[in-house]
Amino acid sequence: MSVMKRLSMIFKSKANKALDKMEDPRETLDYSYERQLQLLQKVRRGVADVATSRKRVELQISQIEGQSVKLENQGRQALKAGREDLAREALTRRNNLQSQIADLRIQYSNLQGEEEKLTMASQRLQAKVDAFRTKKETIKATYTAAEAQTRINEAFSGISEEMGDVGLAIQRAEDKTAQMQARAGAIDELLASGALDDALGPRDDIQAELDRMGGGMDVELELQRMRAELGQAPAPKSAIESGQNHGQQPQGQPHTQQYRQPGEGA
């Protein structure tokens, strides 16, 4: 295929596609209906013209018949008067008129038949035009409904896409909110524990050392109390009191376990 043919085909296809987009079937149907009405009007004018010609021939026949009757009467009068020559002339003219009447009757019959055929054609065309009008309105209504449904579907599609984007935005907002809530909770815990105060505020070395020593003493007292319970060493008074405070020895019951030397029986 040559380049020119390909370009021509491409141009025609694109032009056809553009025309399809521009064409409105409802306008095309209305235009077709108007054209049919114009054709129907032409047929009706043709019927009227034939009917007019038929009527004109009918009038001519009537006039010539009147002249024929007049010539016949004149021939009788001439013959009564003894004027045979005048009577012959009147009858000769009458015969010529009769020949014209015969021709006009044939023409009248032809025009009458043509008028009947055109009238029937006009009636059939009128029925087709009426049927086309009904179908046209039905198609237009269906097309309009389909067009409206298409617009609604496109609107729903757009709303669905928008809702999808909104859903993603909501999800991102929820994730960010949860992240901020978690961060706020972590900051609250750090504030409650004093970690942020230690990190942000001035460090008190003396208080830190006293806290460390106090923690070590508590551990030593707890070890001595546990050894006393196991019978390995007497518990100091402070450890016993600490154990009672921790609920390990019921109130009101003195600690009765005695220290035993290794090797002594129960």
Tally of DSSP β-strands = 0
Kindly state the percentage of residues in helix: over 70%
Largest sheet: none
Level-1 CATH class name of the domain at 12-152: Mainly Alpha
Shape: rod-shaped
Radius of gyration: 63 Å
Number of helices: 6
| Mean pLDDT over the residues | 77
Distance between the termini: 119 Å
Task: Output the structural class.
Answer: mainly alpha
Query: How large is the share of residues in beta strands?
Result: under 5%
Order of helices and strands: HHHHHH
pLDDT under 50 segments (min length 5)? 246-266
The CATH topology of the domain at 12-152 is given as Helix Hairpins
The CATH architecture assignment of the domain at 12-152 turns out to be Orthogonal Bundle
Written overview of the protein:
The chain is mainly alpha-helical and 266 residues long. Among the domains are: 12-152, Helix Hairpins; 213-248. It has 6 helices and no strands.
Brief description of this entry?
Helices cover 85% and strands 0% of the residues.
List keywords for this structure.
mainly alpha, 6 helices, rod-shaped, disordered C terminus, Helix Hairpins, 85% helix, 266 residues, 0% strand
